[in-house]
Specification:
heterodimer; A: 192 residues; mainly alpha; 2 domains; 10 helices; 0% strand; B: mainly alpha; Serine Threonine Protein Phosphatase 5, Tetratricopeptide repeat; 75% helix
């Protein structure tokens, strides 16, 4: 999907990644009312809709930073589909309603479907990563926190009073352990 | 994967491999699915850590910013949602009443005026220094008039005048009673008599003469009469408005 021409609405993704208030305002003005209206029509409240929108914007922000997210479809279609899917999944979890991903949650834009799907998988993975990180041993958790906070292996080595080579080796071992924890999770097979 | 492989992942991501090592690494990615899966997860975890742990402050700033925009949006646009909120029954009733009032006002303003829009009566009390019979007739006429029994009032007033009690006051109320009794032409003669006189009822007679023509739907005649209502008359304002409508 990355080979195709990037849509001009990529500015919304870039604006979110840069925490651009004007872009966030534009999203709230142009796209959020439709989402709120949809959720209200489907057993949701205004407050639930607002919470969901904020969660979805947070996921797009995270994905834009961690992956090379380049939209080739309109932002409206992508964003609306993401919100719809997330809402249906919430309803499903709460068993408020029997819901299956049916044609109703498929956009007219096939590319939007694909982007929304990828973002949904990304979100699930983030959740899995978070859960597994907490299962990691304390020594690895502490080391990785310093590694990522400083984002500099030399400074990490100095802070932990260990050699640079050992710091790199420890980092790779800890992320390796985390990789194995994730791969051993039943959820991983669904997200692979 | 063993410890060396994870360090190899780290070296590759750090760009520490030679061209040959890099080529071999990438060749293994395409041929070894387990190697590829592990590397993909390793790389994703590296990006996840750099962002969610390394950029935790920036993430929190973003979270607060969208919450702020959401709040501003909720304040300035209370509603897309309240715009489509359901009305309660009493609100429908209130809305309906307002519509009816608007419709009535509209109707009253633009509709062709009718005699019924303007007729109004207040009880009368006339005193005459007449005979016992005329006093009795006057009493009967007044009672009938005040009870809006205009035909009886018109008969009694006419008999009074025929008996010589033709005061302008009696003439006026006789004319009004005749208008109400659908004897507009006879009424018109009495109004003319009053208007041509110099009594205090002359101005009032113009107004009632106009209403008499209005009742006949002779609007042009009514308008001509209304034009003659002097600005000093208590009926002047009403006459002006009615004239415009006609």
């Amino acid at each position: 999907m990355q080979n195709k021409n990037v849509h001009s609405d990529q500015r919304y993704v870039d604006g979110l990644a840069q925490n651009d208030t004007a872009i966030i305002n534009a999203i709230y003005k142009n796209f959020v009312p439709k989402v709120v209206g949809y959720i209200r029509k489907n057993s949701g409240s205004e407050a639930q809709a607002q919470d969901l929108v904020q969660e979805v914007l947070m996921v797009i922000y995270d994905q834009a930073h961690q992956q090379d997210l380049k939209l080739t479809c309109p932002f409206d279609a992508y964003f609306f589909l993401l919100c719809k899917r997330k809402w249906f999944n919430q309803l499903k979890k709460k068993r408020l309603q029997k819901v299956t991903i049916n044609e109703e949650i498929v956009s007219e834009h096939k590319e939007a479907d694909q982007f929304a799907f990828e973002t949904t998988v990304f979100e699930e993975k983030q959740s899995l990563f978070n859960d597994m990180f907490k299962k990691l041993g304390k020594a690895c958790q502490d080391l990785l926190k310093v590694v990522f906070e400083l984002d500099d292996m030399q400074k990490t080595a100095e802070k932990l009073d260990i050699s640079y080579a050992y710091a790199r080796k420890k980092k790779s071992l800890c992320i390796g352990q985390l990789t194995e924890l994730i791969q051993a999770s039943p959820k991983y097979e669904q997200l692979k | 994967m063993d410890a060396d492989t994870y360090l190899l992942f780290e070296d590759y991501l750090d760009g520490r491999l030679s061209d040959e090592e890099k080529r071999m690494f990438e060749a293994r990615l395409t041929s070894d699915a387990e190697f590829q899966n592990s590397f993909t997860t390793y790389k994703e975890l590296n990006a996840f850590g750099k962002h969610t742990i390394g950029k935790a402050t920036e993430r929190e700033d973003f979270r607060q910013n969208i919450a702020k925009v959401a709040n501003d949006y909720a304040r300035t646009e209370p509603t897309t949602i309240s715009k489509i909120r359901q009305l309660r029954p009493w609100q429908y009733a209130a809305a309906a009443t307002v519509l009816v009032l608007i419709a009535i006002s509209y109707f009253q303003f633009f509709a062709i005026p009718t005699y019924d829009d303007y007729r109004e009566f207040s009880p009368i009390s006339i005193s005459v220094r007449g005979t016992e019979s005329t006093s009795e007739l006057l009493q009967r006429a007044q009672t009938a008039y005040n009870n809006e029994n205009f035909e009886a009032a018109a008969v009694a007033f006419t008999r009074l005048r025929n008996a010589g009690e033709g005061s302008p006051e009696i003439l006026l109320y006789n004319a009004i009673a005749l208008t109400e009794s659908d004897e507009e032409e006879t009424a018109a003669e009495l109004y003319n008599e009053l208007m041509n006189g110099d009594s205090v009822y002359a101005e009032e007679a113009i107004w009632y003469a106009a209403l008499n023509r209005l009742k006949q739907e002779k609007h042009s005649l009514a308008k001509e009469l209304l034009k003659n209502v002097p600005s000093t008359s208590p009926y002047y304002q009403k006459a002006q408005k009615l004239q415009k409508k006609l």
